[in-house]
Write a structure and sequence with these properties.
Layout lengths: L2 H12 L3 E11 L4 E11 L1 H5 L7 E5 L8 H15 L3 E4 L2 E3 L4 E4 L6 H14 L4 E6 L5 E4 L3 E6 L2 E4 L13
Parallel strand pairs: 3-6, 6-7
Antiparallel strand pairs: 1-2, 1-4, 2-3, 4-5, 7-8, 8-9, 9-10
Helix pairs in contact: 3-4
């Protein structure tokens, strides 16, 4: 599988719950750099009615099927996602900062890489970065320190207190 196939599979599995924009251009004001995020998502009305934020958020995807080089790849992905959470993106003619950024990876990462990614995301939480993942039944979840949102065959569950706040300086 390639990163493109990973993104296509993600879009297929969440498109019924989210509006999706692909390859969205943006700008990081502090570094004065143009950036491009894989996806920007916004909850559809049925999900907003269940309590999901009505703001756009980003998703950065990374594919890896090997251990060699993956530690560096996923470290850079988390840093990339932190900087994306600070960037402004052009979505439907409007410049906006995403509410948060979620990383999406294959669900069968090697245990060493999975452990490394979990450690990185414990820091990423403070930069408004979490993780988007799927359960075996193809229900999705978004997790920061704990689960913020998840779908299930019975509906949706949101934990508003898990949505991270913007932080700067001493926290």
């Amino acid at each position: 599988m390639s990163e493109t196939a990973l993104i296509d599979r993600l879009i297929k599995n969440i498109g019924h719950d989210f509006e999706i924009r692909r390859e969205v251009p943006g700008y990081h004001p502090m570094y004065k750099k143009n950036v491009r995020i894989d996806l920007m998502l916004k909850a559809r009305s049925h999900l907003q009615e269940a309590g999901f934020t009505n703001e756009w958020f980003g998703v950065e995807c990374k594919w890896s099927d090997a251990v060699q080089g993956a530690t560096s790849k996923f470290t850079r992905m988390v840093w990339q996602s932190i900087t994306y959470a600070q960037s402004k993106f052009l979505v439907d003619g409007e410049h906006l900062v995403p509410s948060f950024v979620a990383v999406y990876t294959p669900d069968n990462l090697d245990g060493i890489i999975e452990s490394h990614l979990e450690t990185l995301l414990s820091l990423g939480l403070y930069g408004n970065v979490g993780r988007l993942y799927f359960y075996r039944d193809l229900s999705w979840g978004i997790k920061f320190a704990s689960i913020y949102a998840r779908s299930s065959p019975n509906g949706f569950h949101m934990s508003h207190n898990q949505l991270p706040a913007r932080r700067a300086g001493s926290i």
